Amino acid sequence: MGGNPFQYFLGFLLLLLCFKAGLGSNFMVGEATVGCIEREKQSLLHFKQGVIDEFGMLSSWGSIGEDKGDCCQWTGVECDNRTGHVIRLDLSAKILRGKIGPSLAELHQLKHLNLGFNRFQGVLPAQLGNLSNLQSLNIQNFGNMTCENIDWISHLPLLTHLDLTGVNLSRATNWPQIISQMPSLIELYLSDTHLPWTIPTISISHVNSSTSLAFLDLSSNDLTHTIYPWLFNFGSHLVYLDLSSNHLNDSIPEAFASMTSLTYLDLSTNDLTGPIPDAFGNMTALAHLFLLWNRLKGEIPKSLSNLCGLQRLFLPYNCLTGPLEKDFLACSNNTLEALYLTDNQFKGSLPNFSGFSQLRELYLGFNQLNGTIPESLGLLAQLEKLDIASNSLQGTVSSNHLFGLSKLWYLDLSFNSLTFNISFEQVPQFQAQFIMLASCKLGSHFPNWLQTQKPLQKLDISASGISDVIPSWFWNLTSDLYWLNISNNCISGTLPNIQATSSLGMDMSSNCLEGSIPQSIFNAQWLDLSKNMFSGSISLSCGSSNQSSKGLSHLDLSNNRLSGELPKCWEQWKDLVVLNLENNNFSGKIINSIGLLHQIQTLHLHNNSLTGELPSSLKNCTELHLVDLGKNKLSGKIPTWMGEILSGLIVVNLRSNEFNGSIPLSLCQLKRIQMLDLSNNNLFGTIPKCLKNLTALIEKGNLIISYDEAVYNRSWVHSYVDNTMIQWKGKEREYKRTLGLIKSIDFASNQLTGEIPIEVTDLVELVSLNLSRNNLIGPIPTTIGQLKSLDFLDLSQNQLNGGIPHSLSEIAGLSVLDLSNNTLSGKIPLGTQLQSFNANTYKGNPGLCGLPLVKKCPEDKSMEVSPTGLCNKKEDNQDDKNNIGFYGSIALGFIIGFWGVCGTLLFKSSWRYAYFQFLSKMKDWLYVTIVVSMNRI
Q: How far is 119 from 861, CA to CA, in rounded Å?
C-alpha cells in the first residue's frame, strides 16, 4: 500500500486534533496530562466540609463555590495522567480533626487512601466499601473514631494493606471471619482497636484463612488465648506478628513453632507463664524476638542457638533463671545486635561475648550475676550501650575492659562491687552521653578521664568513695548535662558560681560541702543539696537580674546550717513540687507569697525557728499532700481552711509549736489523711467526734507519697519518694518508703479536755494513737478492742477513770502500751498481751490490781491454790487404791502428765504470765526487726 510522507503527516495531524477536541481543554500534547474529573473534585470538597483544618493544611483545596483550579494539583491528591481520575489521596499527619464523610466513596478509581496520624472522630463510613479498586487503606487514628461493622471491608478484593490502628472495633465481633475472606491482604494493622476479647465459639479453626497475609499487628487489645486457633491457621505464611500488650496468659503454645516464616514475633507485656518453648528453635527465620514483661520461668532454651539470623532478643522483666552459657546463642554470633535480659534471676558469671561481632546493645542489669567482668567485653567493637547494673559483680575494671569501645555512648555499671583501676593519663576512645557508676569504687579523687566526655547528658558517680575537692574542669561537663549525681561521697570545699541550665537536675546530697550556696545554681530544675554543711542565707537567691528560676520543681536544702529568713520571692519558683528546708536555722515568718506555689505537693519546714501564724495564702496550694511544720515557734489557731480546701493532705505534722485554740472540726474532712500530729502545742477543748470521717484510717491500703518528676524537655523521669520525721514509740525517726504504713493520730501534750470519743474506735486501721499528757476524763471506750491494727497506744498522764476494758486484751499486735498516771481502777484484764507489759505501763493508778502489778486483787487472794498440793493429794489417793491395778496406772500417768505441765500454767500465775510474756516479746522482736529492715530499704 503506497502513499507519500506528506499524506501520512497530514493524516496524523488531523487525528491528533480530533483527539484533543474530544478530551477537553486540559489536554496538553507535550505533557500528556488530563485535568481532574469535576464530579471527583466536588467529592473532595464535600469531604473537606466535614474536616477541621486548624493549620490550613488543605488551603490549596479551596471550598465549594470557589474555583481553585485543577484538583490534581491539590495537597495530597494524585490523579491518573491519562484519565484524570483521582487514584491516590494521602493526607497523613496533617493534624486534621472532624469527621470522614461518605463522599470519598465517589472516587471510584481510588487505589490508595491514607488518612493516618490524624484525630478524626465519629463513625468510619461503610461507603468506603464501594471503593472496589482500593489497594491500601490507612485510617490510623488518634481521635475517637469507631467502626461498628467491618463487613464492607470484604468488598475490597484488591486490598493488600489495611491499617485501622486506633479505631474502636469493639462491636465488630466477626472481624476474624472478615479478615479470613480477604484474598489479597498482605498487611493488617489493628493495634489499639478494642477488639472483642474473646473470639466467637464457632469452628473458627476451619475458616479459610487468607494465604497472602504476611504482616499482622494485633497489639494493645484485650485478646486472650481464644485468638490462637484463628491465628495458627495462617501457619507458615506470617512474617511479622505482634501480639504485645494483650491478656494472653498460661504457657506459650508450642504451635508457634509452625510459623516457620516468622522473622518478627512480639509477645511482650502479657501474662505468659512457664518456660520459653524449646520449639522456638525451629523458627529458624526469626530475627526479632520480644518476650519482655511476662512471668516466664526456667532457663533460656538451648534450642535458641539454632536461630542463626537472630538480631534482637528481648527477654527482660521475667523470672528467667540459670546461668548464661558461653554458647547459648552460638549460631547468631555474627548477627545479634541487641540482647536485653534485664530484671530476671540469672546467676553465674558473665559469658564470653567476644564472638558477637555485631552486638550493639547489651542489657544484663538487675540479675544475680557474679564474678568479674571478662576483658573479652572490650572486644565488642560495635557496642554502643552496656548495662550490667545491680548485680553482684566484683573485681577490677581496667582500661582494657572499656576504653577500646569507640562507639560506646551508654554505660551503666552501677550497684556492683567494682573497683576502677585506671591511670591518670589513660583516655577512653568513646564519647559517652550517659555514664552511671553509682556505688563503684572510683578512688578518692575525681576520675580524670571524665573530662574527655564532652557530650555528657547524665552522670552518676554517687557513693563511689570520692573524698576530693571538685576540680575546676568538672564544671565544664555541665553544659549539656540534664542529670548529675555526686551524692553520698565525702566531697568537700565550696561551690563555684555554676551556670546551671533550666533543664539540669543535680543531687549533691550527703557530702561535706560548705560555704554559701551560689545564686546561679537555683536556675536548675531539680536540686538536692541536703545533708551538707552549707551556711548563710538563701534570701540572696532573690532579685538577681540575670537569674530565671522558673522551672525549679524540686528544692531540698534540708540538714544544713542555713539561717536567716525564708526567701521572699516565691514567685520565681512557682513550679516547685517539692520544697524541703527542714533541720536548718531559718527564722522569721512564712510570708504570704508562698501561696504562689500552686504546684507544690510537699512542704517540709520541720525543725527551724519560724514564728508567726500560718499565712492564709497557703490555702491556694491545693495540690499539697504533705505539710511538715513541726518543731518551730508557729502560733495562732490552726486554720479551718486546712481541712476545707487542702483536701488532698495525707500527712500533717504541726507538732512542737505554739498553736492554740481548739482542734478545727474541718480537719475531719481530710479523707486521705494518714498521719495527723498536733502534739506539743497549746490546744484546748474536746477531741472532735467527727474523726470517724477520716476515711483513710478506716479503709485498708496505704498511700505512698511519690512523684515521677520529668526533667524539663527530656524523656528521663526521676522517681521521688517522700519522707518525713515521725515521733514513733518515743523516738523521732525518718520514714520514707514505709511512710504509708504509719497511720497515726498524735494529740499528746496539749490541754484537751472531755472524754475520749467512742467514735475514735471506728478508725480500725489506726496503727498509733497518742492522747497522753492532756486533761482527758471519763472511761477508756469499751470498744477500744476494735482497733485491731493498733501497735502503739499511749493514754498516760490524763484523768481517765473506770476499769481497763476487757476488749483491750484482744489487740494481739499491741507492742507499746502506756496507761500510767490516770485514776483507773479494777483488775487488769487477763490476756496474753496486757500481762506482757511491765508494771510501769500501769503505774500511778492506785486503784488497779492484778498482774503484772504486785498488788493483788481481792478475788485472786481467795482463789490461790497450790498446784503442788493438788498433785501430791492425788498421788496419795492413788496409793490407797491398789485394787485399781493396771487401769489406775494409766489414769495416774495421765493426771501426772497433764497437771504437771498444764496444771502448773493454770494455777501458778507467775509461771503462766512469764510464759505468755516470753511469747509476746518474741512477737514484738520479730515485728520491730521487720519494720526497721523495711525502713532501711
A: 86
**Spatial separation of the C-alpha atoms in residues 680 and 663, rounded to whole Å:** 13
Give the relative orientation of helices 867-879 and 886-898 as an angle to the nearest 10 degrees. Answer: 170
Q: To which H or E segment does residue 221 belong?
A: none
- The Cα 333–Cα 931 span in angstroms is 48
Distance, in Å, from the CA atom of 531 to the CA atom of 806, rounded to the nearest integer, reads 48
Phi, psi of 392 (to 5 degrees): -120, 35
CA atoms lying within 13 Å on the CB side of residue 103: 16
CA distance 62 to 41: 11
Strand ranges of the sheet holding 271-274, from the earlier edge strand across to the other edge: 249-251, 271-274, 295-298, 319-323, 345-348, 368-371, 392-397, 417-420
CA distance to 36, 75, 580, per residue, from 44 (Å): 11, 11, 60
One-letter amino acid for residue 276 of the chain: I
Q: What is the CA radius of gyration of the chain?
A: 39
β pairing state of 51-52 and 97-99: antiparallel
What is the C-alpha to C-alpha distance for residues 163 and 135, in angstroms, rounded to an integer? 12
Which amino acid is located at 926 in the chain? L
Nine-digit cell string for 768: 498509733
Which residue's entry shows cell 461493622?
149
CB-based contact 371:347 (threshold 8 Å): no
507: DSSP letter: E
User: Which parts of the chain have pLDDT scores under 70?
Assistant: 1-33, 65, 67, 200-211, 540-550, 703-741, 832, 861-937
754 has which bridge partners?
Answer: 776
- Measured in whole angstroms, the distance separating CA 459 from the mean position of its chain's CA atoms is 22
Residues 6+ apart with CB under 8 A from 759: 689, 690, 691, 692
- Asked whether the beta carbons of 357 and 335 are under 8 A apart, the reply is no
Distance from C-alpha of 610 to C-alpha of 589, rounded to nearest angstrom: 6
pLDDT digits (tens, 9 = 90+) for 588-634: 999 999 999 999 999 999 999 999 999 999 999 999 999 999 999 99
Q: What pLDDT was estimated at residue 738? A: 53
Instruction: Report the alpha-carbon distance of residue 340 to residue 136 in Å, rounded.
Output: 35
- The C-alpha angle with vertex 391 and arms to 386 and 392, in degrees rounded to 5, equals 130
SS3 content of the chain, % helix, strand, coil (to 5): 25, 25, 50
Residue type for position 886: F
> How far is 140 from 278, CA to CA, in rounded Å?
36
SS3 state of residue 230: helix
pLDDT of residue 478: 82
Measuring CA to CA, how many Å separate 731 from each of 469, 626, 725, 734?
36, 21, 10, 10
> Which residue shows C-alpha cell 538451648?
302
3-state secondary structure of 443: coil
Name the percent of the chain lying above pLDDT 90. 66
pTM for this entry: 0.81
List, as one string, the DSSP characters of 337-368.
Answer: -EEE--SSEEEEPPP--TT-TT--EEE--SSE
pLDDT for res 835: 86
For residue 555, what pLDDT is reported?
93
d(CA 694, CA 706): 21
Please count the residues of the chain. Answer: 937
- Predicted pLDDT at 455: 84
CB 165, CB 191: distance < 8 Å = yes
Determine the 3-state secondary structure of 849 from DSSP: strand
Q: Which three cell numbers stand for residue 462?
A: 554517687
- Name, in order, each residue with C-beta under 8 angstroms of 529's C-beta and a sequence gap of 6 or more: 508, 509, 513, 517, 556, 557, 560
Rounded CA gap, 288 and 859, in Å?
82
Name the phi and psi angles at 46, rounded to 5.
-65, -40
Query: How, if at all, do strands 792-794 and 578-580 pair?
Result: unpaired
